[in-house]
Amino acid sequence: MKKTTGMDRAATRNWRPATRAVRGGTWRSEHGETSEALFLTSGYAYDDAQTVADRFAGDADGMTYSRLQNPTVAMLEERIALLEGAEACRAQASGMAAMTAALLCQLSVGDHCVAARAAFGSCRWLVDNLLPRFGIETTVIDSAEDAAWEAAIQPNTKVFFFETPANPTLDIVDLQFVCDLAKAHGITTVVDNAFASPALQRPMEFGADVVAYSATKLMDGQGRVLAGAICGSEEWINETLLPFQRNTGPNLSPFNAWVVHKGLETLDLRAKRQSEQAVALGQFLEPRLEKAGGQMLHPGLPSHPRHDLALAQMDMTGPIFAFDVGTRERAFAILDALELIDISNNIGDARSLMCHPASTTHASLSEDARMDMGVTEGLLRINVGLEDIADLKEDMDRALVAATL
């Protein structure tokens, strides 16, 4: 196989983001197909014994086994790396496979990890439950308080782990401050960028070492497959992550890789249009919430405490926001009254989706942990899709009326 247009990797890095999203990581076979090929194979055959020996020894390029290399998966990895501005990328079976691998590949017994308290429920489970089982100390902080990061550093701190914007409370972390602090102390930053994607935010531009994704979200963008990705330097990917991945096997299937690869072609268009729609819907809802004593959590609106920071480090603020209506009963009444927007715990989809985090994405956490994170009984999270904004406003208006808001 050869790369499309015959350009080398250095040349593709001169492409602008929209071109990278469509053309990056495209290899063509002798058939000259315009849509990237799907290679559904677990293994590979070789012309002679020396060829396979050289490949396994690392002395020759080529595929050996799909747990290590697959052409379709490799195309996706190359495209994500280009979009992220990273030297390398390794695809994962899911977003949580990516988060788990990004942490466990570099943390050992006796190490310390500082993590943001506002995070996806399963990410908090990793920090609160899994890492301590392996003798890894953890400290959870309010990531929006800059001073809390430095105060949490210990002599054995190896990793800062956080998401911005955070799921589901939309906390915003000062990327430049935290990454600079980490570098000054020899700490590796691992940033979960799933809420933004590289179309809206590129943490490595602010000094992040590792960026992890649930590619299930905006990268696929149509609710079709599970996928994850981890980006970093070639040295970190090959020497730190790859040994863990090779021997534990959280690999992405070629079919899922192909679906996400095609999804990336429209990522820029979808992410920006959905961001615009999310701001418009948030502006529509906020006055109603204020009158009813509710609270809007939307980094794209001036009412957010870190609105200016969000605008400074993001191209746009994304399709997702949250709002608090006070009680579970009122939150459920809103969900039950929706006719267009689906009740679903996924995000990043082209369809508008809404869920109640306390009873879904964060239900596995203790009540104390949820309260510490700001995941209240009245909190609702919405992913704003590509439907007509007038229809979305009408659906939300109907739901608010049903809940007496």
Description:
The chain is an alpha/beta fold. The protein is built from 15 helices and 14 strands. Helix 6 links the parallel strand 4 and strand 5. Helix 4 packs parallel to helix 10, helix 11 runs parallel beside helix 15 and helix 13 crosses helix 15. The longest helix has 25 residues. The chain is globular, with a radius of gyration of 22 Å. The mean pLDDT is 95.
Residue share in helix: 40-55%
Strand tally is: 14
The backbone outline, from C-alpha atoms, is: globular
What name does CATH use for the topology of the largest domain?
Aspartate Aminotransferase, domain 2
Question: Can you tag this structure with a few keywords?
Answer:
405 residues, 2 domains, alpha/beta, Aspartate Aminotransferase, domain 1, 5-stranded mixed sheet, 7-stranded mixed sheet
Short synopsis of the structure:
40% of the residues lie in helices and 15% in strands.
